[in-house]
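Listing S7. Sequence submitted for prediction.
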Amino acid sequence: MAKQQSSVSERQRTNLREPRRYKVYIHNDDFTTMEFVVKILVVVFFKTEVEAQALMLKVHHSDKALVGVYTYDIAVSKVRRATQMARDEGYPLRLTYLPE
């Protein structure tokens, strides 16, 4: 039996949506040096020296500061990298990520 060609094309619906974003916070502690916090902000989060200094002071004067908003994978990898750098230097620096 021969197949018949149809002139009707079927449309498939694709539900694409923007990926969920996560806020990354850096928390204040009494042991991590201000210079190291600036280093983390510059090296891991690609902040300028001026931005890093301002964020470091914000963290120092309050409990925490928003470092950036990223997709899940990027937020997790930045938090892990910064945490590992802090542990390697012997600092208890804490970073967290929360859904936006």
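Caption to Listing S7: primary sequence and predicted structure tokens for the chain studied. The first strand starts at residue 21 and ends at 27. Strands lie at 21-27, 64-71, 95-99.
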